[in-house]
Design a protein that fits this description.
Elements lengths: L29 H42 L11
Main location: mitochondrion
Membrane topology: Single-pass membrane protein
Subcellular location: Mitochondrion inner membrane
Length: 82
């Protein structure tokens, strides 16, 4: 066959750039820029994501509570039985 898996098709007009793994740093600026960026992204999205999740949780717990109540017998229906 002669061709490796990555070279199966010849694509024209596409330029790819790569850097040696020995020249790149694995975690550059992880503590100085990475963690503050995660905190900033969390703060901006928490008010968009949390209210629907809280609403769905409250609806789910209410539904389970009502379902458990509907499974119980009402003792007032049976107090005149002999």
């Amino acid at each position: 066959m002669g061709r490796h898996f990555g070279d199966l098709a010849k694509i024209r007009h596409v330029i790819t750039y790569s850097i040696s793994p020995f020249e790149q740093r694995a975690f550059p600026n992880y503590f100085s820029k990475g963690i503050p960026n995660v905190w900033r992204r969390f703060k901006t999205s928490v008010f968009k994501v949390a209210p629907p999740m809280v609403l769905m949780y409250l609806t789910y717990t209410w539904g389970n509570h009502v379902h458990e109540q509907s499974k119980r017998k009402n003792l007032a229906d049976y107090e005149n039985d002999q």
